[in-house]
Each structure stands twice: as C-alpha cells, then as structure tokens.
Design goal:
By secondary structure, the protein is an alpha/beta fold. The N and C termini lie far apart (about 70 Å). It has 3 domains: about 5-150, DNA polymerase, domain 1, CATH 1.10.150.110; about 155-305, Beta Polymerase, domain 2, CATH 3.30.460.10; about 315-325 and about 390-555, Metal-dependent hydrolases (TIM Barrel), CATH 3.20.20.140. About 45% of the residues lie in helices and about 10% in strands. It has helices at about 5-20, 25-40, 50-55, 60-75, 80-85, 90-95, 100-110, 115-125, 135-150, 160-175, 185-190, 205-215, 245-255, 255-265, 275-280, 295-305, 335-340, 365-380, 405-410, 425-440, 465-475, 495-500, 520-525, 540-555, and strands at about 155-160, 180-185, 195, 200, 220, 225-230, 235-240, 320, 345-355, 385-395, 415, 440-445, 475-480, 505.
C-alpha cells in the first residue's frame, strides 16, 4: 500500500482542492494545502515517526496528525473519500486540465452545470466560457487547447478528431511504399462516430513496416498483432496480406462482427473473387458500402435490389440550425449569410438561443424583434439569398416551449431542444420531449438525447415513441452534425424513414467555420441509409418555403 510522504501529501492536496470546489471554509482548505506542502518537503518518512512527533511538526497539529495516522493505517483519507463520492468524476478530472484551478472549476460546475471534460470542450467551442466572470477569450482558448491535449491520450477518438491524422499516416505509407496495396479499413472505413484504433490492409511486408514506423517514433506493441502507438497515443493496426487476398481481407476487416457472421453463413465464407466488388458479385449481391456493413439485416435488403443513392456532401443546399453573435456565436448575421453564399448555399436558418438559455445570451422578446428587423433588412440586401427567422427554443422542465404562442408565431420555424435539467428519468424525458413535439410551432426536434460523445451519454429516451410522435405531428428530427453530438443516433434513422419522418442534417454552427461540421453529419446519415430527398437541409429554397407553408397549414398555424 503506497503510504510514503508523496502519497500522503497528494491526499491532502486533493482534499484541499475538492473542498475549494465545494466552497468550503477557506481556512480549512488552506490548512490542508499547507499540510500537503509541508509533508512533501519532510526529510524523513512519516511512516517511520511516532504519532506524537507527527503532530508536533509545524503546520500539522493534532487534527491533521490523526488523519495522517488513518492514512498510514488504512491507506486512505476518509474525509477525502466523502468529497470524492459527492463530486462528479468529470469535475474531478478537470483538475488535470492546465489552467483550471478549483475556483474556476466551481464556476464551471455550479454555474454552467458542466460535469465532464468533454462537455467543457463543447462549451469552449460554443464560446460559453466568456460569458462568465474570470473567463476571457484568452482563458477560453487556453482551456480548449489544454483539453484537446489531455484527450489525445484517452484511447478513444471522435472520427473528426482522428481524420486528419489517418490521412497523414496514409500519405506517409503511400510515399514510402508506392508500389504496394494500402487501404484504410476497420471502424474508420465504416464511418463509426467513435474510433478505437486505425486499421490498414496492406501488401507491405511486416518487417518493412516495423523499420519505417519505429524510425518515425512509433513503438510496436507486444499484443500478438502488428500494432504500433505513436506520440499521439493513437493505435495503428495492420493486416498484412498478399495481392490475391487483398479484397477478401479488406471485406473481412470493414464489417461489424455480426455482419461478417451473416455474410459467412450466406456465402460459406469461400472467397470467389479478388476485389471486394467481385466478392459481392459472386455472392449474388449488389455492392454494400462499408458504412452500411453493421446490421446483418442489410444483406436481406440488398437481395431486394440496389440501394438508393446515399446522401452526399454536395446534396446540402442550406445551413439549418446556426447561431450568431446575437447569442453565443462568433460571427454576425451578415457574416454567417455571406459565408453561406460563398459556399453556394441558397439560404440560412438562423436559430439563436431562447431566453431561458441565459448562459448563452439567449434572446428575450425585445431582442427577437430587433433581430427580425435586421433579418428583413439583410434579406433585401442579399436577395435572392434568404435568411429564415428561427430560434433554438428551450424545452422547459414541464415540456412547454420558452415563449408564448404570440412570439413563436413570428418565426418561420422553431427548433425545440432540451438544454437544462439533463439528469432525468426516461419517463421525465419522454414527457418533456413528447409535449414539445405536440406543440404546433415545433418544426424540428433538436439533438434528441442531448448526448456528447465520449463525455455524456444523454438522457434515456424511447426512440420509437419519439419517432411516432414526430410522424404524427409532422416534426422533423435533427441529426446534429457537430462531431461531438451526432444526435439523433444513426441507428434509428431507418426506423424514422419507415415512419415517414424527415431528417435534418444540421451543423449547429456557432461560427462560419462550424459549417464544415455538416460533413460529419452526412457520414453518420449515410450509415443510417439517408437519401437527399428525405433530408430537409437538401431542399432548395423554393421547396423549403413550400414545405414550411404546407406544414403550417397542416398544423393550423
């Protein structure tokens, strides 16, 4: 049991920090912090001292001396465990982020209601920290950089975070071995939202790979596979094969285990071709894109005929769900609009936060009127490009929306989302969501579960019930394209499509750069089998106007 002075000092240092986070008496927290400093500098080990000598050390005293005796006897500081038990693990984890002390962490937890490092990173990306005392733009950027550095070595990575790295390794290998076969495979090729490792199928000899990668600073892992880890902490796994087995190996490594088992049962597992395409042809199936190779049921669908063309990045005609500097965005309305025009988009749906989102500078009724007047002016100036008046309206604790019907009626469309009181039972979550869906002004249900990938699982929901409610009330479901959200989960898109529900792939952009996130929504949407005609943000301007008019007429508003 580690009971040397450094361990004991760490216990008291952590206690002082957690007490500070909880706002305890500053005299007590300073006494524990001072004790930690004293213990760390002692020339002799506390474990070798009589109890009375420990208590007589300047800066220790009887009370702390007794706590040291407890640590020496049990290996733990009981009062520290009490504070650990009542502090979310993610809040404790923030102490590992450079630039965040207990006082700032207390603000983040108690005032911003953020309980994980991933949530905090998302808040930085939305410029939320700058709205609180003690957090300026420089502090926010420093915290963001420190979090990104911290998360690099956590083992799991968002697709968007690892994409550029995968490309750089691919280029390095192609340059070194231009005559060899090389293809990314595994989770990355299947476009999964969270990646555990990067995998390649290659005809490069193992020894040649070892020589190149070790020279580049990668360390080979002793796990029975040809795998390496570089300074970034990302695992690279290689499946070496010859040219004749390349296609078969690529197929086997770019399917879920369930899909591969069903494929083997259907085909007998006997290779009957060299390329992936020829393997599908030999099996009497149309080619199934890697992104669809998850659920074995897709094999039965394939037997019915070719798949419809999946949605592509070029199918996006507009930006729906975006925030300007009227709430927590970085850019002005005109800057957001002109950035859309530069990208060839036909319209912008501006949906700043509603008034309950005070932490995001949400719009009260007077500011809504001011913003609408500005939108009218910009629409005259930028025509035929159109800015639609929208709001990301908070779904309140009782399921009602954040404004009266009189105010809601002034918007072209309303995106309804939950942002507060996220710790709730499924019964409570369903009450809030379904009531909001039944509101005739709700046009799009925003980020259905509130999840943040690798950070927050989201509140529990009955997906089928929500989809049924959206179908009944003609509410589209957002696929929030922010790579940390990707919510709704792509696994439920097929069910939504079967029920006739429209999906809306939206970037939830808080800056013009945020428009780029649409790409990750498209990748997730492809996994769910979404086509352009069932995606709201693929509608051209006139079709979108007609959709809104028809929906309002159907809902009697």
């Amino acid at each position: 049991m580690p009971t040397d002075n450094y361990y004991i000092a760490d216990q008291f240092s952590m206690l002082a920090k957690l007490m500070d986070i909880h706002g305890e008496n500053s005299f007590k927290t300073r006494s524990y912090s001072s004790a930690a400093f004293t213990i760390e500098k002692l020339p002799a080990q506390l474990a070798d001292m009589p109890p009375q000598d420990i208590s007589s050390i300047r800066g220790i005293g009887d009370a702390i001396g007794k706590k040291i005796q407890d640590i020496l006897a049990t290996g733990e500081l009981r009062i520290l465990q009490e504070y650990v038990n009542k502090t979310p693990p993610g809040v404790i984890g923030m102490l590992n982020i450079k630039g965040l002390g207990p006082k700032k962490i207390a603000t983040i937890w108690k005032e911003m209601e953020i309980e994980s490092i991933g949530e905090l990173l998302y808040a930085c990306q939305e410029n939320r920290l700058m709205l609180y005392k003690g957090f300026g733009e420089k502090t926010q950027e420093n915290v963001r950089g420190a979090i990104e550095f911290h998360l690099q070595n956590q083992g799991s990575h968002l697709y968007a975070e690892i994409e550029a790295y995968a490309g750089s390794v691919q280029m390095k290998l192609q340059t070194a071995f231009p005559e060899h076969g090389l293809a990314l495979t595994g989770e990355f090729r299947r476009q999964l939202e969270v990646i555990e490792n990067l995998q390649w199928v290659t005809t490069i000899a193992p020894d040649a790979l070892r020589q190149l990668l070790t020279t580049e600073g990668f360390a080979e892992e002793a796990n029975g596979s040809l795998s390496f880890k570089g300074p970034e902490g990302i695992r690279l796994l290689f499946h070496c094969t010859d040219a004749n087995a390349f296609g078969e190996t690529l197929l086997k490594t770019s399917c879920s285990p369930e899909f591969m088992e069903a494929w083997t049962q259907r085909t007998g597992g006997k290779p009957a071709g060299v390329t992936e395409e020829s393997l599908f042809t030999a099996a009497g199936l149309p080619f199934i894109a890697p992104c669809l190779r998850e659920d074995p049921a897709i094999l039965d669908e394939a037997m019915a005929g070719p798949f419809p063309t999946l949605i592509q990045p070029g199918d996006i005609r507009a930006i729906i769900h975006s925030h300007s500097n009227w709430s927590d965005g970085s850019n002005s309305l005109e800057e957001m609009a002109r950035a859309c025009m530069t990208k060839g988009y036909e319209y912008l749906v501006i949906s700043d936060h509603s008034k309950s989102a005070f932490y995001a500078n949400g719009l009260n009724e007077d500011r809504i009127r001011e913003q609408h007047a500005l939108i009218d002016e910009l629409n005259r100036k930028l025509a035929p490009f159109t800015i639609f008046k929208s709001i990301e309206c908070d779904i309140l604790n009782d399921g009602s929306l954040d404004y009266s019907d009189a105010i809601l009626s002034t918007f072209d469309l309303v995106i309804a989302s939950v942002h507060s009181n996220l710790k709730m039972s499924q019964e409570k979550a369903m009450m809030r969501l379904v009531k909001a869906i039944t509101n005739p002004y709700t046009c799009i249900l925003g980020h259905m579960t509130g999840r943040l990938l690798l950070s927050r699982p989201g509140y529990p929901v009955d997906h089928e019930m929500i989809i049924d409610a959206c179908a009944e009330h003609r509410v589209a479901i957002e696929l929030n394209a922010h790579p940390r959200r990707l919510d709704m989960d792509w696994r439920w898109i097929r069910h939504a499509l079967k029920k006739g529900v429209m999906i809306s792939v939206d970037p939830d952009a808080h800056s013009t750069e945020g428009f780029e996130h649409t790409k990750y929504g498209i990748l997730a949407a492809q996994k769910g089998g979404l086509t352009a005609d069932r995606n709201l943000s693929s509608y051209g301007l006139e079709r979108f106007k007609a959709y809104l008019a028809e929906r309002k007429k159907a809902r009697g508003i």
